[in-house]
Design brief:
- The chain is of the alpha+beta class and 158 residues long.
- It has a domain at 50-141: 2-Layer Sandwich (Alpha-Beta Plaits), CATH 3.30.70.
- It contains three helices and four strands, in the order ααββαββ.
- β1 (67-73) and β2 form a beta hairpin.
- The chain is elongated, with a radius of gyration of 29 Å.
- The chain starts with 20 loop residues before the first helix and ends in a 17-residue tail after the last strand.
Length: 158
């Protein structure tokens, strides 16, 4: 029995749903707006409380691009206020200048933040050398005690 080809349907027995191009574009636009709003809200909640301090450090040290964050690392550990800023010199070679900047940043922080709520303050001075890896020096407050050597460490065997 030969069936003529004109009567054979090539469509599947299930009806396919089609989504219009307008719906796809509107969906993508809505997704982009939601993602942007989420990032904006997160940024405001995460860095908003420290914005006055960040702006004060930026006024004091032009072109330093300060970043100020506070909280606990992964929700555990001590409360830390972390201040990072770029400097135009290597903080290991210019130790006196790095110490002065650290002291001034701590003075500014005392004016703007409730420092007793933080158990630790970190000031990171970052030098971006041209075509080299960035150099970072971290100052901790209160200063960490020097690491104790294990018994017998540092002795050479004869």
């Amino acid at each position: 029995m030969n069936v003529p080809l004109e009567n054979v349907s090539t469509a599947s027995p299930h009806k396919t749903q089609e989504i219009s191009g307008k719906a796809v574009v509107l969906g993508m636009l809505a997704l982009g707006i939601c993602a942007t709003a989420t990032l904006f809200i997160y940024f405001e909640l995460h860095t908003g409380p420290f914005r006055p301090l960040r702006e004060a450090i930026g006024r004091e040290f032009k072109h330093s691009r300060p970043n100020v964050e506070g909280g606990r690392v992964r929700g555990r550990g001590p409360w830390i206020l972390r201040i990072s800023m770029s400097v135009p010199f290597d903080p290991y070679l210019e130790e006196a200048q790095a110490e002065q900047i650290n002291e001034r940043v701590l003075e500014i922080a005392q004016k703007f933040e409730n420092l007793p709520t933080f158990e630790q303050i970190q000031v990171n001075l970052i030098y971006f050398a041209p075509e080299k890896e960035a150099v970072r020096r971290t100052f901790d407050w209160p200063p960490k005690p020097p690491a104790k050597k294990a018994e017998g460490e540092g002795l050479r065997a004869k």
